[in-house]
Amino acid sequence: MMENKIYDLLILGSGPAGMGAAIYAVRAGLEAAVVDRSPVSGGQVLNTYEVDNYLGLPGLSGGDLSDRFREHANQLGVEFITADVQGIVEEQARYAIQTDKGNLTAKTVILATGASHSMLGVPGEKELAGMGVSYCATCDGAFYRKSTVAVVGGGDAAVEDAIFLAGICQKVYLIHRRDQLRAADSLQKKLLSLENVEIIWDSEVKAILGSEEVEGVELYHNKSSEHSRRNVNGVFVAVGVVPATNAFQGFVEMDEKGYIIADETCATSREGIFAAGDIRKKPMRQIVTAVADGANAVHSAQEYLNTKKN
Ligand code: NAP
Fold this sequence. Notes:
The chain is α/β, with parallel strands linked by helices and 310 residues long. It folds into two domains: 6-116 and 241-309, 3-Layer(bba) Sandwich (FAD/NAD(P)-binding domain); 119-237, FAD/NAD(P)-binding domain, CATH 3.50.50.60. Helices cover 23% and strands 28% of the residues. It contains six helices and 17 strands. The strands form four sheets. Strands 1, 2, 3, 4, 5, 6 and 17 form a seven-stranded mixed β-sheet that branches. A five-stranded parallel β-sheet has the order 8-15-9-10-11, with helices on one face. Helix 4 (156-166) links the parallel strand 9 and strand 10. Helix 1 (16-27) runs parallel beside helix 2 and helix 1 packs across helix 6 (287-308). NADP nicotinamide-adenine-dinucleotide phosphate binds at residues 48, 53, 120, 152-158, 160, 177-178, 182, 238-241, 285-286.
């Protein structure tokens, strides 16, 4: 950590938005660095077993795609700092990034800390986390070979998880609270072609059952009001994400869910601070839109630096 150094730009987060920003920043000749609490960059992409919608690189695993991003950044000489960002304060037209390893100073900052998984919030979820309750099918799926598991959710993540687990497990229940999935059509088609996946519609998980390990789920059918139980060995929760913006509360404007309000230029309510990727309030959160945000944010940061002449 170079505590006395003043960076032109610090990029917080090393997912696709942060990595996209990093390569644009270095190519623009900015004195920039990427700060992330993990030395392994990637963010949520690391939890994706196959990325099939990133232009030019079909069929790579999330891990492989992240490695490619990292290699690209390394080739261009991007500086990476491993530290946990805890807050930012403005001090005399500079921004002090407070981390667990000390302060870093920059003239502009791109917030790109992404999002993390939501919890179901039902009895048994916390108690059985790591003992059958998981939020990452690609990380933990292999533990459930030939078992029966449940995936909860109806978005891209849940359907992708169910498809992935169907290749490992004997039986997969996809439990969704409505009678329609919100996942992309291509994923839905793939899911419906799998014989060992059963979709349980209009159903909510009321509790995850078990003492030492997951033994089942208690379900509530919200149309018939009936309660039932399914015996499963694992529960994969994929019910959306929450933005990782706690460290920036009160510093920039956010919506009621904690997403940072910023337009296409990625400019936030505070001059010199930009938001890129999944932490930004926007309609479509994809790898490609995160990478694009990274590029736009650097362009805006450069314009800001030029007008400030600092
Ligand atoms: P999402 O799109 O927000 O979907 C969350 C799902 O969980 C919804 O089906 C929602 O139900 C359900 N849900 C939410 N809270 C629930 C609760 N308390 N109990 C039961 N069900 C609940 O989240 P995501 O699937 O994690 O995706 C997040 C973003 O990443 C999206 O923009 C997605 O497109 C993107 N993504 C893309 C890919 C890809 O393109 N390959 C892969 C993964 C993620 P309702 O439908 O009833 O609201």
